[in-house]
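Structure first, sequence second, as always.
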């Protein structure tokens, strides 16, 4: 009985900690200037490590960069971070990314990701939405290191590509997850 109560309290504490990763209101953690600098550095690092990302960036109508997403969980988890949308190399909007998950999972990690919108139509659809759920979005091709080596102008067939980069920490398990991207005001 004592073990059950401790376990329940521990789960409650972890759930509150995971959910606290999400901000109640839109706020820039370090201000626009710091977010711009972090996003630009992350994008340049991605381009330096993945030439396929640079090739996509050169052709993309827009690139949404989240330089630092923090994810943590134990049974119940969550992640969050802020990013910048670039159009023609200029910052044109600021976004938050957040997720919640439940299932067999444990750990903590940080990573960055970039979403490449290859057409004006897909970029406009994203910008005009009231929030974008990755799971409910149009087909997004997640590019891994092996696939990136095989990408060229004849193999590019999707309208949206995503790269995950700078992964640190360890998060393991299987969980149901929902992710939402929303514009910061």
């Amino acid at each position: 009985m004592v073990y059950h109560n401790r376990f329940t309290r521990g789960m409650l504490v972890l759930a509150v900690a995971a959910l606290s990763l999400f901000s109640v209101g839109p706020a820039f953690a370090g201000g626009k200037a710091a977010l711009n600098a972090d996003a630009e550095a992350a994008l340049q690092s991605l381009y330096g490590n993945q030439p396929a990302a640079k090739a996509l960036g050169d052709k993309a109508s827009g690139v949404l960069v989240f330089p630092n997403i923090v994810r943590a969980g134990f049974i119940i988890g969550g992640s969050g971070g802020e990013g910048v949308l670039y159009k023609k190399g200029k910052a044109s909007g600021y976004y938050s990314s957040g997720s919640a998950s439940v299932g067999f999972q444990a750990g903590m990690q940080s990573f960055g990701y970039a979403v490449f919108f290859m057409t004006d139509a897909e970029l406009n659809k994203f910008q005009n939405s009231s929030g974008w759920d990755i799971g409910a979005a149009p087909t997004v091709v997640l590019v891994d290191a092996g696939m990136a080596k095989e990408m060229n102008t004849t193999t590019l067939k999707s309208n949206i590509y995503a790269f995950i980069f700078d992964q640190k920490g360890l998060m393991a398990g299987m969980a149901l997850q929902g992710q939402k991207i929303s514009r910061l005001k």
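Margin note: Residues 7-27, 146-155 have pLDDT under 50 and may be disordered.
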